[in-house]
Amino acid sequence: MKILNTILNYSNRTLYQETEMFSFTLDSILVARFLNLNSRRKRIVDFGTNNAIIPLIISKYTEAEIVGLEIHPEAVALARENVELNHLEKQISIVETDIKDYAQVHNQEFDVVICNPPFFKMEGKPKLKEQPQKIQARHEVLITLEEIIASAAKVLKNGGVLTMVHRAERTSEILLLLERYRFTPKRMQFVYSKAGQKAKTLLIDAVLNGKEGNDILPPLIAHQDDESYTPELLAMFRD
């Protein structure tokens, strides 16, 4: 069933979500707001755009061209509908493609890659009863972490930026893969469900062939003791 939602407290942003498909989560908001935008970044590509939630948010803060890549035809149709719903056809385009195939023919075309990828490795036969698209959104069925980083290295211009959200437990692997594909981490921030708990999420910016130097930002705490969102997180839910 298709449902029309506002995007939290963002003005002039609404989108359709399909209950049988993967809905956007807090991670999409986090990575969209973590992205460091400036006037030099003219072309942005979103790897695995789903319903176009990330392009819809970042378009509020930049006039850059945004391309959303999505492999599932149903999600492509929904993303295009959401772009039209928000009258952003001149800024955002949705391409139905496999990220790996797209990267083979679009070398050094983008200033930024942004990605909320599948977090979990697919080890053995999945014991999941969800819709295939939901499984593929969470698990590395169609694309692996290494393939995402390798594809980003192909489509980015020299000095381009990969901005990604991922599980904190995979930080070591992420850093090793970034180095393998000539990325230098520049900004990192860990997100915690509550103060005093282990980090749950990693937000990271990495520059292709960048100079050394890395800023570790203050931790972001998502929830207060009563389970409500912290003021810092709520600030990301509005313009």
Automatic annotation (TrEMBL):
Record GO biological process: methylation
Pfam families: MTS
Keywords assigned: Methyltransferase, Transferase
GO MF, one annotated term: N-methyltransferase activity
Span of domain Methyltransferase small: 33-175
Keyword check for RNA-binding: no
InterPro entries registered for this protein in UniProt: DNA_methylase_N6_adenine_CS, SAM-dependent_MTases_sf, Small_mtfrase_dom, tRNA_Adenine-N(6)_MTase
KW Transferase (keyword) present: yes
Name recorded for this polypeptide: Methyltransferase
